[in-house]
Batch of 2 targets.
Target 1
Amino acid sequence: MKIGIPKEIKTNEYRVAITPSGVTALVQAGHHVCIERNAGVGSGFTDTQYLLAGAQITEEAGTLWQTAELIVKVKEPIRSEWLHMRAGQIIFTYFHFAADRELTQAHLDSGAICIAYETVALPSGELPLLTPMSEVAGRMAVQEGAKYLEKFQGGRGILLGGVPGVSAAHVVVLGAGVVGSNAARLAAGLGARVTLLDTSVERLRQLAQTLPANVQTLFSNRQTLLEQITSADLVIGCVLVAGAAAPKLIRREDLKSMQAGAVIVDVAVDQGGCIETTHPTTHENPTYVIEGVIHYAVANMPGGVPRTSTIALTNVTLPYVLQLANKGWRHAVRDNDALRHGLNIVEGQITHQAVADTFGLRCVFIE
């Protein structure tokens, strides 16, 4: 199969969809890999490394899209790439359709087969292609939150871990999934006082046995959430409903009860955000202030550490890329139920219920 790896052109996105070692595996399996010139430079991989791995380098993104049967990316195709998409082409990437109706319609109109990393799901419910980026984002959320708590950045002037004789910062984490548990663990490791909220008592019980003693777990409801955010220095939103828009847990009027200079990091922004006042930002302009509260809502947080993120992503996506390339998408999804859950759009039809429900559209079951 002809596999195309375009250069990511979303603002401040430095990741690439595959490492040179990943290319080697695909070439050894008999596939033709074409990668756009300098696609890997932001992640520390040179064109020479890709050439030695067996890839072909192309100057033109349009040519790559035109010839590739399977496009493998990191982020969703942006507007300038939509004109390159075509019927029958397989596109394998993070889409987050539920956050963007226009993006969804463009892919419906293209006739392409869109397989979303974020909805590939194992029988256990685990999202294996979302997990490594969630781990990165959860840890980065604490780093970024700590930075913007500094007075120079407009924050409260709070050191996350405090010092002897001075209280540590209060970090409130909404959601105890992969992002939330990683955020809680790192914040606790830095010495913060952490409150972790979730609606799954079973999940909270599990984490209470493994997280440090300075993490308090609480069942999440409206009253508890409001009580916690009033004393929070840093709030990290980590709520995920696979394939669907994130629920809005913090409303605009709630911000008035928060401390001036407090920071919100909304990791759920890819799925529309779990804070009502969230809108996507970039690494170049990452924050804005509403009601005295700093909002950080970078939609591609792991792109800030592209070397780590690219290697972690390829580790988990490569087996699925090989299955799609070896078998074609129809046989691959028949043989792999996890991959079948990744199908979001097929030849002009929505095939993922959560995406269809978000926009009130019809879902066609792939069977």
Target 2
Amino acid sequence: MGHDQRFVFESVQDALSIRKYLEAVMEGLGKGRLVVATGAEEFVLEPSGLLNFTVKARRRSGEGRLSLAISWKCPDEEAPKTAETLSIKA
């Protein structure tokens, strides 16, 4: 079992700067490799297979929020697959 690793970056940016980050994410997803870094800290992710994609949007009291999340299971950490289907009956 692996250990928990985290990378967090938060800042205030203009829309053009955020667009460049999103374009880099798109390119990384296409290549199957994303590298995020600040200063000496570098974090490498290798998305593959089927990805979970979550979009959340909210508007409240003059403030808007858009959250995007992409997640996946690493190949060596995937749960074993079964050919059987689930059936639940009352």
